[in-house]
Amino acid sequence: MERNQNIQKEKLFDGLEEDMIKFSFTLNGKEIKISEFLNNSLRNLVKDEGVSQEDFEKIVEAGNFEKKGTLIKNYYSQEHLEIYYLINNGQIYLFAFGEFQPARYILYIEGAWYL
């Protein structure tokens, strides 16, 4: 699996909850809403999408993601936002998303990997 060097970390959204619900962005000419990947926690990438454990570990290491949690272990960015994925057009796109402060949400695109 190879990283798409053209997709670099970028903040896509920083705002209030009511704006986040309406927010969308364009990815490969397609309009994407946050709800399209919120069920795709990075921890499920191997089980749900058949990505090899070796490739998964490469993605986690390259992103410098941290595994945290007691009962359910999720992966988090350097900003302490949970990592999600979206498969689109033969690539795995990684997003960091969450509530940064009360009622303030942030979304980053962390990068992309070719399948």
Structural overview:
By secondary structure, this protein is an alpha+beta fold. Helix content is 19%, strand content 45%. It has 3 helices and 9 strands, in the order ββαββααβββββ. The protein has helices spanning 17-22, 45-49, 53-63; strands at 2-3, 10-16, 24-27, 30-33, 66-68, 74-76, 82-88, 91-101, 104-114. Strands 1, 2, 7, 8 and 9 form a 5-stranded antiparallel beta sheet that branches. Strands 3-4 form a two-stranded antiparallel sheet. A hairpin with a 2-residue loop joins β7 and β8. It is globular and about 40 Å long. 23% of the residues are buried.
In short:
Helix content is about 20%, strand content about 45%.
Give the strand tally.
Answer: 9
User: Mind describing the biggest β-sheet?
Assistant: 5 strands, antiparallel
Distance between the termini: 6 Å
Helix percent band: 10-25%
Based on helices, strands and strand pairing, what is the structural class?
alpha+beta
- Our count of helices gives 3
Q: Shape, please?
A: globular
User: Averaging pLDDT over every residue, what do you get?
Assistant: 94
